Amino acid sequence: MRKVKIRRKTKETEVKVELNIDGEGKYKISTGIPFLDHMLSLLAKHGLFDLNLKAKGDLEIDPHHTNEDIGITLGQAFNLALKNKNNLKRFGWGFVVLDEAEVRVVLDLSGRPYLEVRPKNIKGYLENYNFRYFKEFLRAFVNNSLITLHLDILKGEDFHHILECSFKALGLALDQATSLDKRKKGLPTTKGRI
Q: 0.85 cut: is pTM over it?
């Protein structure tokens, strides 16, 4: 069973995550940041993993700490749930369109954290959420899940559509990469270690 339950508590935030990699896309999310709740529900639904996530933070200041700590905790949860990497497909990708927006995500469960987002910046701000917060969430997630993630915004004008495509594509890519392939024996690497 690739399930994990973890909690992260600091003076600024408290984040609780229950994750089942082999789920059905069920979710219960409460972060105090409504737009992020919406995006994380898309991630779980399209990634076909079950996610129960609850966060409290110093939102009276701004979403930065809560947003980043959610990325940290969710990344740690994925890393722990995927501790046994035998038979993993390892690589995943997803292309998603929503009206005018198109996003591609490619990732590797490599044990080597690296994030590439293109373009480097786009304009947009929704319900106390902007592109900088989005990239900080991804950076925290990548650094703590130990994955390589490339996200390319290929087209788009509507900020909401671009981020929605991004989270859906990430979910699709994670579903593919975390899938097990019985044809693969042992670790999916020639190095002998991930």
A: yes
